[in-house]
């Protein structure tokens, strides 16, 4: 573990200027502003675990601001608060953390972090590809407080703290530890902030699936209409139209496509010796229309798929 600060004894102004250099080197460019009139004091310890940089940063009250995106910082910060209160803002979301809480933010995007009662936190600097490989929905969790009181918040906190306190590890062991830690973080964030699917939406999905299954079971029926399908599946005709519209299609268009697919697969498998027989078996009644649509969809005529060809 390396102690980057404090360094040799410096006067108050030099200490703060050196602090800014050290912080910007470790975490990326920020504009820093002390929130106290006291002489500046702080400490920063850093260690590398595989590709992740672990650090503990402590100081008098201070605020950090990253004002522009993309300034030499293609990484995420995953932090656990060790002080009384922290305020993080990013992507239009403001959050507050207290002791033990965890927060994630994107180092390549503008953000602000304020520590009005003093800074004390464990910070993981995680390369973007590594974090996104384990937390693919990271953007949904930026500047959201993973409370230590949440279902998996305490477990995530404990793992992060144990990783910080662990002795020096072999690179391969460190990478495995990072992966396990980030997987737990992903599960903890998803459990805490996953949006439950509305019951109405679930009901509509069940309705649509039931209608599709009925249509697939009755591809042969050339007499199918919206009214007959609605009656058979116990919904109103307008409900049938609305459900398929939510997928950007109509019931008749979807039915036509499924008939075309089924006919193509049957011809390809050699189940029919005549195109007419195949078309009628899947509910087509207009052979010229069927042949035209088939050629447009598959680039060959249905006759070309007959066994003789």
From TrEMBL:
Coiled coil: none annotated. Gene3D superfamilies: Homeodomain-like. The keyword Transcription applies. InterPro entries: AraC-bd_2, AraC_XylS_family_regulators, Homeodomain-like_sf, HTH_AraC, Tscrpt_reg_AraC-type_HTH. Residues 209-308 form the HTH araC/xylS-type domain. GO terms for molecular function: DNA-binding transcription factor activity; sequence-specific DNA binding. Keywords: Activator, DNA-binding, Transcription, Transcription regulation. PANTHER family: ARAC SUBFAMILY, HTH-TYPE TRANSCRIPTIONAL ACTIVATOR RHAS-RELATED. Regulatory protein of the TOL plasmid xyl operons. XylS activates the xylXYZLTEGFJQKIH operon required for the degradation of toluene, m-xylene and p-xylene. This is Transcriptional activator FeaR.
